[in-house]
Amino acid sequence: MTKQGWLKTQGWRSVLALGLLMALSACVTVNIYFPAAAAQKLADQVVGEVYKAAAKGALQAPVAPAVSAPAPPARSAASATDSLSMASPYHAASYLLAMGFSAISGTAEAAANLDASSPGVQSARAQVEALATQMHPYFVSGAVGYTANGQVTIHDAAAVSLPQRAPLNGLVASYNQALSNLYQQIADANGHPEWAGQIQQTFAETWIDKAPAGYWYQSPSGQWQKK
Amino acid sequence: MHGRSRALPIAVRWSMTLCLGLAISGVAGAQILEISAAQISGAGWTAQRLHATLTTSAQGDQFSLAAGVAQAGERKLWRHARLQCGLQTAQGWACRQGLLVVDGSPWGALHGDGQVQLRQVGGSGQAMLALRGVQFGSARVQVQSTAAGKWHLTGAGSLPVAGLVRAFTLLPATWQTSGQARWQVRARGASWAKARQMAFELQGSQLQFSSPDGLQAAQGVALQLQGDGVYTGQWHGTARMRWTQGGVLWSPWYWTAPAAAVRIQTRWQQTAKAWQLDQGSIRWPGLGQGGFALYRPTQGGVLRWQIRDMDVAMAPLYANWIKPLAPPGGLAAQLQASGQVHFSVAGEGGLSALKWDLRNAAISSPRGHLAVTGVNSRGAWSRTGKASDAVLRWQSAELYHIPAGALHAELVLNPQGFQLQQPFTLALLGGELHFRHLAARWAGPRSGFSMSGDLRGVSMAQLTQIMHWPPFTGTVSATIPELQYHAGDITTSGVLSAQVFGGEVRVGDLHIENFLGVLPLLRANIGIAGLQLKPLTDAFHFGYISGVLNGDVKNLTLLNWSPEAFQAQFHTVPVHGVSQKISYAAVQSLTRLGGGNGISGFFQGMFLRMFKTFAYAHLGMGVHLKDGVAELSGVGTEDSGFVILQGQGLPRVDIVGYNRRVDWDELLARLKTAMHSGAQVGTGE
Question: Do residue A77 and residue A165 come from a single domain?
């Protein structure tokens, strides 16, 4: 038996042994991770529409989006794909082994949808949009701005006239309540109430990213900045 | 000493304490008299580290006075004040071309000029002080005294308000203030430092203030304050105020001066224990008028106030005083009110008592969610007192365009809320809503309203028409177990049961979010048992069906009162003594509902028309609505279809649907068509 033949035999034996071991010990755990990409896509859509409704000054019935994003591929699969370019039987076997193992054992990362079509989300969005219309002149004037955690706060009350200032405090409180409700409703609608914080953080960045020029926002350190 | 010293024109009863230094010296032809005192104090004031210098020379006499600290009560008025002037003693003492420098005062550092005159004419004295400075404006004060010690003071001037506010701590030190004030003072007394009468007038213009966050502020305010007082063992007098211009923000309230001035007048009194305003009256054009009183303890304690017998218009009262307290997105923030109200209210660390008489009032919301007319109510409430009675009446009301009849409710008010004195009934959609229990709590986690009662004979036709629901006829009677309203949400703790068409509809887990707000959301589970199909199909023009129907609607979700999602299934159950028959027209209707176009075959149709009714074994349908699409099912399956009607005997009619997924709007259209096209059939039953 040539050295190459011996290696081939040994390789297949190893594959067989590992396959048996794998079959005996395989267990599957599927973790549904927070779908960051889907959350970002949803945030882009909702935030865009809220800004649009606020600027237009009219309440529009929200269109229920349902977006999904694929889960990131497992690291083991990715590395195996790279190794496919090496055409030796050993490497091919290793690839198959890795693929098989990743398919039946270890931790899998499942893709998760972010469904925003639930009536609760629609109602919450309608409330946000209705209040956003009232908040619009305060954002434009710089009286209020976004915090780094997806809420709003008073930036410079003196930027608006005294009559406009009167309801400002209550409006900010109501708007923050409506925003928190929206984040929670999205998390609840997707069966993961614990995602509310991550959804809020995703929205926080989007409110600032998509804010029209002239809007004020706070950096994570609390510093006010103007778009 | 030069020998020019004369007796002071008036008796000064100041006490000079600690140290009085006197020094006379002569330098280069000039003579200098220096007097220093560690402290001089009078009634309510103190001056420390005083140093007076009189220098006489051929060029003229010079007088200078320096004071380390001058304070009134606990408040430091001046710090390091220095006055220097040329002294003339030809006709009394005159200190002319004086220069005043003060390092610290309520106005900040001061720099001004002025003059002081002291004259004695036949035992009476006269003093005049004139001061002028950029920071403190100008002041001219004249004092005349008699030999007996009686004196009379007049003063006038103008000053920036900022210093005045700081001096008397009228607002917190961090607030910004500006504006000008002109003032006049007259006072008289029997002896120095003991005033017995005084009068003052203050005219402020372009007054402004602002808290650091800008949520308490005023702009362009013009007001006039007048007052007088007499000392008879304690100070008391009257005060009047006119507010003529400007706006005041005290978030969440904002008020502007009406075209005609707001007038306030009151009697005031200062005792050792408190500042007190009583017999006050306020006249606010466009709002109303009434009386008030106020008691502010000087040694700490809670401010007590009363507003008595106010007669005000509801429209401005609600818009400017009540509505700002409501959350911006809620119903209360959208309401408008009219009518008149007479009320008295008292506070002591919060609202403590209220008495009202509301006459011919009305409440409405712009979008027509709520409208109440002919409202009359009177009653009283106390935070600490015992329960009291109240009456609420209205002529008519509308909630979501659902009209309700006249109301007469008698309530018992207690410190925490109110409850019904006795049950009452409200006419509603041809029937009535009977309130067995109605109560409210003002505060706490269980704040809001709760009610229980009965619906009797309410017309479903009217209700479904108003709510734009699929048409439904007949009447409904229901028992409302315990319905609670809190912060825009309605929940029930029990099962709402309604007797409909001989059966029972039970609504459980009812929860309405954002009631009367934007896009209200209703969630409920509904169970149906023993519904008689004959009267049901009689009520709808659906064709004739007899039998008994059971079913349920799970996870019903209405968004803005339109179905958004549910899982419904209905099926007949055999009941002894009740036939299960269906007419040809009903077969047609069911066929359309299932997605067909009715019985299309000519011979089949002609044959079936020969029979009035057909017997059936099972009848039922399931609808699962989600995302605007309804998924249909039946009482069984056949091939790839679902069985809606499974016939029995001969002739046997089965209805099988094959289009399981249908757009919700399409299904509604089918239902509407079926209800209007099914001719009623006389079956003799």
Answer: no
Q: What angle do CA A43, A49, A51 make, to 5 degrees?
A: 100
Q: Where are the beta strands (DSSP E) in A40-194?
A: 66-69, 106-110, 112-115, 144-146, 152-154
DSSP B680: -
Interhelix angle A89-104/A3-25, nearest 10 degrees: 0
Query: Residue B454 is encoded by which pair of tokens?
Result: 């009965």
In terms of phi and psi (left: phi > 0; alpha: psi -120 to 50; beta: otherwise), the region of B634 is beta
User: Is the Cβ pair B329, A178 closer than 8 Å?
Assistant: yes
| Mean per-residue pLDDT pooled into runs of 10, chain B (685 residues) | 38 41 58 86 79 83 85 75 81 76 77 73 74 77 81 90 78 90 91 81 94 94 95 92 96 94 95 90 95 90 92 95 86 90 92 94 87 95 87 92 92 91 92 92 82 88 80 78 86 82 87 81 92 78 84 91 89 87 80 63 56 80 88 83 80 78 81 60 38
A109 pLDDT more than 50: no
**C-alpha distance from residue B490 to each of A133, B240, B512 (Å):** 26, 50, 5
- Chain centroid to Cα A108, Å, comes to 19
Residue A183 C-alpha, separation from nearest chain B C-alpha, in angstroms: 16
CA A95 to chain centre: 31
Q: For an interface test with B, which of A165, A169, A188 has the most B Cβ atoms less than 10 Å from its Cβ?
A: A165
**A128 and A199 together in one domain:** yes
DSSP 8-state secondary structure symbol assigned to residue B320: I
Residues of chain A positioned with their CB less than 8 A from the CB of B211 = none
Task: Indicate the length of chain B as a whole number.
Answer: 685
Same structural domain, B42 and B82: yes
Q: Specify the residue for token string 């009740």.
A: B578
**Residue A55 sits in the same domain as residue A131:** yes
User: Between vectors from CA B57 to CA B53 and to CA B60, what angle results, nearest 5°?
Assistant: 85
Helix pair A119-141, A36-56: axis angle to 10 deg = 60
Nearest to B253 among A117, A122, A166 (CB): A166
Domain residues for the domain of B62 are 1-135
Cα A49 to Cα A182: distance, rounded to the nearest angstrom: 14
Is B521 in Cβ contact with A119 (below 8 Å)?
yes
Among A81, A110, A139, the domain boundary falls at A110
Contact assignment for A158 to B520 by CB distance below 8 Å: no
Distance, in Å, from the CA atom of B653 to the CA atom of A81, rounded to the nearest integer, reads 62
Q: Quote the distance between the C-alpha of residue A47 and its chain's center.
A: 13
Q: Are residues A21 and A132 in the same domain?
A: no
Residues A125 and A183 in one domain: yes
Residue with tokens 């403190």: B136
Residues of B in contact with A157 (CB under 8 A): 213-215
CB-CB neighbors (< 8 A) of B207 in chain A: none
Using an 8 Å Cβ cutoff, are B49 and B40 in contact?
A: no
Asked whether B582 and B591 are in contact (CB, 8 A), the reply is no
Distance from CA of A171 to the nearest CA of B (A): 6
H or E segment to which residue B463 belongs: helix B460-466
Quick check: A127 contacting B, CB < 8 Å? yes
User: What values do phi and psi take at B594, rounded to 5?
Assistant: -80, -5
Q: Is the ipTM here above 0.90?
A: no
Residues B92, B194: one domain? Answer: no
Q: Coil, helix or strand for A39?
A: helix
Spatial CA neighbour of B288 closest among B313, B265, B263: B313
B271: Cβ contacts below 8 Å, ≥ 6 apart:
B234
pTM of the model: 0.73
Residues 6 or more apart from B214 whose CB is under 8 A from it? A156, A157, A158, A165
Residue A148 neighbours by CB distance under 10 Å:
17
What's residue A69's pLDDT?
A: 38
